[in-house]
Design goal:
By secondary structure, the protein is an alpha+beta fold. It is built from three helices and eight strands. The chain has helices at 2-16, 45-57, 123-130; strands at 26-34, 41-44, 60-61, 64-72, 77-85, 88-89, 102-110, 113-120.
């Protein structure tokens, strides 16, 4: 599990620097899923993952993210809780800070490669899909 956590941390470290140039971490037949948000969908393969990411990213300007927490769910899956920082909708002009900005990614890893990556803009939906209890939001008094 430690190797999977290290792999996912390295992917996020590159992304937090704005470096999306390498997909050496991805299996050639990776399944890339946008589970929710403005453009949900599913793509397969490295070219499909790039297309899915471009589809998602095309709606935003200056979008950045940072990991809040990494969790090994089991031998094959790593959950990353992340927060969007900066960025705004290209069409709407809405600042990321004006909308829910806490998401989650689930990485499925086999043989040192990510075989499936599921992105959730809604962290609570990720918890529900994974059968985990949602964590209370300290900014939400209830």
């Amino acid at each position: 599990m430690s190797a999977n956590l290290d792999l996912v941390r390295s992917i996020y470290a590159a992304g937090e620097r704005g470096d999306f140039s390498s997909a050496a971490w991805a299996h050639p037949e990776i399944e890339f899923v946008l589970a929710d948000g403005p453009v949900p969908g599913r793509w397969t393969g490295l070219a499909g993952m790039a297309e899915g990411f471009r589809t998602f990213a095309s709606a935003w300007a200056e979008l950045r993210f940072e990991a809040d927490e990494y969790r090994a769910l089991d031998d094959d899956r790593v959950l990353v809780l992340y927060r969007w920082s900066g960025g705004r909708g290209k069409a709407s002009g809405v600042e990321v800070g004006q909308i829910r900005s806490e998401g989650a990614n689930v990485f499925h890893v086999r043989g040192g490669k990510v075989t499936r990556m599921v992105n959730y803009l809604d962290r609570d939906r990720a918890f529900a899909d994974l059968g985990l209890a949602a964590e209370p939001n300290p900014a939400d008094p209830g």
